[in-house]
Amino acid sequence: MVELEKAVEAGLLQPLAELVDPAVSENLYAFASEAGQFGEQVYALQYLADIDHAAYLTGQVAQVPATWYEVVDRRIAYLFALASPPGPGGARPSEGLSHAVIGQYLSAGATLGADRRLLVEAQPLQRLLTFHEEATKAGVLPPAALELADGEAVWSIFAQGQAPLSCASARKYAAESSALAASYAPAPGLSAAATPIAGGWALAIVTRDPQRQAAAAQLIGWLLRPENAGAWAKAGGWLPTSSGALSAVATSEYATFLDAQLAAARSIPVGPDSANTSDRIQNAVVSVVTGESDAAAATEAAINAQ
Description:
The protein has about 300 residues and is an alpha/beta fold. It has two domains: about 5-50 and about 200-265, D-Maltodextrin-Binding Protein, domain 2; about 50-195 and about 275-300, D-Maltodextrin-Binding Protein, domain 2 (3-Layer(aba) Sandwich), CATH 3.40.190. Helix content is about 40%, strand content about 10%. The chain has 13 helices and nine strands. A hairpin with a 2-residue loop joins β1 and β2 (about 40).
């Protein structure tokens, strides 16, 4: 998904509106429907996904905090990724911020509009940074968070029992939690759960040849049938991108939880200014967690940065 915007800008992908039957995408989760849309055109359909959610060690955490206030008040060590995720081949992706931080920022009131652009907004940013500041001072935000870029990196520390509450990858939880005394919950946000941010992979058409386009469109339709999409995601250890595909391969309580999380998820932010926006927010987060600035000063610096 982090490569998709550049592929569209380069003119490599063909619009799908006239090629793929609209019925193919009508049952996708909202994030998967919006993920391939740029401007007025749909260029791709997401078929594999991953999100982060809270994972906790049941022997150390009796009840998962639902909000940041509870995390700080109850002094529960909470680990989540704070570093910028590396892109394909080491290049910086358009998302720029960890999915955990984006989801927290949205829960603090930040907006992600129809064009999926993330803005530097003073009040939501200060709320986010205030949580990071208070959590750091209370000793509940481990310093290791600044070295972690995604939920999979967080999992390795969580699995060692070093962080009783973590915002971890659903893929890792599904694959490895059976070996732990662990359970799951929505990641805490400002006043409710943080917004899950979905990464993953998408299907697109690159050929300009009409016959090949028709064949590719038929293949996309077949692959996104719930039974096929669900089987493919399960075989690869991913999450599918429709409720029908999920229910075709899983009926557990955890699957029901994932269905709700995926229904609430958003796709990663895009836009030509997203790298700049992400850098400004990331710099503010780092300055607060390292103690270089307080939340108010870091917010002001982010607003005034160019």
